[in-house]
Amino acid sequence: MKLSKVIYAVFWGMLFLNFLPHPLSAQIQPSITIDINSEEISPNSFIEVKVFGSSENEINAFDITLEYSPEIFSFERAYTQDSVASLWKSIPFEGKDGAVSLVGGSVKPWSGPRNEIATLIFKARQTGASSFTVKNSFFALADGQGTKSELLEQSRNVVVSRDAFFANTEIVSIPPRIADAFITNDPLNNNNPIVVLETSDAGSIKWLGVRSRSWFLWNDWQKTQLTAAIPNSAWATQLKVLGFDGKETVMTLYRWKTVSTKIFTILVLFIIMIMVKRFFKRKRVASLPHLGLWLIFFIPITLLFFAPSVGASTLSVSPTSGSFSVGSTFDVQIFLDTEEQNINTLDVHLKFPPNALQVVSPTAGQSIVGVWTSPPTFDNKKGEIILQGGIPGGINANRGLVSTITFRARQVGNFTLKFSDDTRVLLNDGKGTDALNQTQGAVFQFVLPPPAGPSVASETHPDQNLWFSNSNALLRWTNTLPVSGYSFVLNDIPVFTPDNVVDSNETFVSYKDLPSGTNYFHIKALGQNGSWGGVTNFAIKVDTEPPAKFSVEAKPAPRTTEKTIFIYFNTTDTHSGIDRYEYSVVPLSPKYSPKEASAYQTFFVESNSPEVASLDKGRYDIVVRAYDKAGNFLDSTERVSILTPFVFYIANKWTLAVGLILIIVLALAYRRIRKWFISLEHRHNKKELPENVKKQLEELRNYRSKYGALPVLLGILGGIFMFSNQIVAQTEKTTKLPPPLITTVSRNISNEDIFYIGGKTENANVDVDIYLQNLGSAETRSFLVTSDENGNWFYRHPTFVSSGEYLLWTQSSIGELSSPPSPQVKMDVGRTAIQFGSNRLSFETLYLIVSTLLLIALVILTTFIISTAKKGRQKHKIMMKEIAEAEESVRRGFAVLKRDIKAELTVIHKNKTNKNISQEEKQKEEQLMKDLERVEKYIGKEIWDVEKYA
């Protein structure tokens, strides 16, 4: 057994003991500390919460709960690459009900001040105040007894305000850092098998699943932790690791002892089957030894899959964030961490936004690269820097400097610096193995220089760092000194000086229908002494367009038997960029399980691609909503059907088509076999012999009239056609209250799908009347729902609606106050189901019924064909025996005829010897010789082609 397996088994045993209650020694005072990077941030900003542990005594396990306000913050992810914990009990980390649980430990105990446990990233959802509090937590001492050390409550307060600084911390999307995975025995559970995943960064895992195969089929994916129990009968196990970058890693592990047992069982069953067949058929199976040998070698080879190798190097830039003024320059350094590997070649491709950044110089200068294969190059039009070089002899560095690059800030906003997929780091192994495992980019904020002129503010666009969907801007300004007028201009240049012409003496200006993008307002004041003052630059970010259209992809397929669905989605936004995604799973069946109900009750939940949904059997609409940073959004829907395996393979049009083709082929085959069988039966019933046999019998009768009585030839034929067969066939009021906004509606559905509609209201807790009018019958129905505290409302009809065209509109009300009707939305309900009064039968059910009937017909036809062919072969065998007997009788008759002819010839020859032969006897002799020659021909050949006749 591997050493790591032993360590893991011992550790989990110790961890179990550590969590048992033990008395706490009084002199031990471990503590926990919370650090945050900002105490006041703006909405949609990100905040880092670092959790540190300190202790004079050695610690090897912990259980920490961090509570927060879920209404104010949403938990995004955790970073654990620098954590003292080497094993985690609870991953992926999740923020549920306003709490994040950190449970783990380390094989090697740790102690000392400020040991990092985890870095947690939260996103501010709305304004308000929240505290991050550690409570009900403890450390487990590495004293062999698992002594618990209770931790005092720690708390840090954070205020979310629109006037605060916008902190945009990029959530780095890196693939999961997997070290190894193996199967071992659980020492705490009767040595049952468990699968263990080793990772150096548990926070990089978004979703972890396991499934196993006991015989031939995989079971469903199950969400799991780093350690997962597997069935004793499983011979193959798969781990699927899903990262925040959307990429997935699947590892297949085998229990070779169980594999050999399964193969041996299959071989034994196979040999028994062959021997049984040989016993009943009494046939030798010459290929059995070769087939058994082939199975012994082929099956293990086909099962041999190796887990993919994992790279080991990291490229990063420094600093990872910062704020700089437009027009200023700053340096960025690229560092390499080889992580105990020996590297000798670098091919670095660094991407930057060309509209916001400009490379001043890529300095090679001080660098770990010894030989540059080409000088560092950059392209300010494409936004790319290329660094290619080698390190003779290789290098093993923790923080090796590759290059220093000087940039100039050109535009206001938040922009990303990242490495492209073409970047490679090659090992010094003589093979050029790519060892790059992760890259870390940077996010910079560029702001306008400090105001040098009038102080500018905007009621419509108050924050220069945020995007707004309002294309009409109102600007106001003030000045501390008396002025004679102002000169101002609006353009797309970040830093600009207006001309020396007074445009207005007013202290405000408004603009309408501003184009989407960043607009800059520049103003300066003319003093009473006739001199112009400094310039103030004010950014107005406008985005009135929603994100680009996108599609939602459901894996493994929209129509599947898997209950775990992976939902992939991605889109772009031209101006402000994508802010977030939200998704919902809406069941389309009228009755749904508690799991389905919980999936739709919280209509839209913030998400990132890929999202994992665990669904029961049924039909669902997966709705994904993409928001840009100005609040514009766009929906995309994918329909998913979760089916049982039988329905999946049977209830579809392709199975129906193949079944019809097989029915036609088998029907034609049955028709031919039946025709052959009826022909045999007809000839048997009529006691009919072949035409050539009849001809020979007729000739025998003619010879009989010439040569006398023949032996009874046909006596044995009597009663030989005395049998018959019988086959039996068996044969789915308007006021100022604004109308509700419809954001989601099931526009194109069928009359076997549930209709739903959702949207937003400007005010919270507003009654929303939903009107549904059938254009065919002019019938109008109404339904009432109430929006929540965020203004979101959603209605799902409890039953199906009939097919046809409908109009939908809504109207909101608060007390006696009502809004005007909303714009009407057209909805088509197609006829994809057959309806009998209140009962309906879906086409999927029809497919299932028809396919099942076809399957039954195939079985019956196959049975008929086998039965008819078997009876035909029996009848054919009997007929061959009868015809052979008839042939033998005819041969004997011709033999008797030959004897009689020779007797006649003997008499003639005697008369010829006595010279008393007449002319008549000579003619008779010639005729007898001809007849004898013909008889000998009949005796010497087969008189009937049996197979042709049959």
List key phrases describing it.
single chain, 950 residues, alpha+beta, Immunoglobulin-like, 7 domains, eleven-stranded mixed β-sheet, 23% helix, elongated, disordered C terminus
Strand and helix layout:
Layout lengths: L2 H16 L12 E6 L3 E2 L4 E22 L5 E7 L7 E2 L6 E2 L2 E26 L3 E7 L3 E4 L6 E3 L3 E7 L17 E8 L7 E7 L5 E9 L8 E2 L3 E3 L6 E8 L4 E7 L1 H26 L6 H15 L10 E6 L2 E5 L3 E9 L5 E9 L5 E7 L7 E9 L4 E12 L4 E10 L3 E7 L4 E4 L8 E5 L1 E6 L7 E4 L14 E6 L4 E9 L16 E4 L5 E11 L4 E11 L9 E4 L3 E2 L3 E6 L8 E10 L6 H8 L3 E3 L3 E4 L3 E11 L4 E10 L2 H6 L2 H33 L5 H17 L33 E5 L2 E3 L3 E7 L6 E8 L5 E7 L5 E9 L3 E11 L2 E2 L6 E6 L2 E4 L2 E4 H71 L5 H22 L5 H4 L1
Parallel strand pairs: 2-11, 19-29, 20-30, 38-44, 46-53
Antiparallel strand pairs: 1-3, 3-7, 3-8, 3-9, 4-7, 5-7, 6-7, 8-11, 9-10, 12-13, 13-16, 14-15, 14-17, 17-18, 19-21, 21-26, 22-25, 22-27, 22-28, 23-26, 24-25, 27-30, 31-32, 32-34, 33-35, 35-36, 37-39, 39-42, 40-41, 40-43, 43-44, 45-47, 47-50, 48-49, 48-51, 51-52, 51-53, 54-55
Helix pairs in contact: 2-3, 6-8, 7-8, 8-9
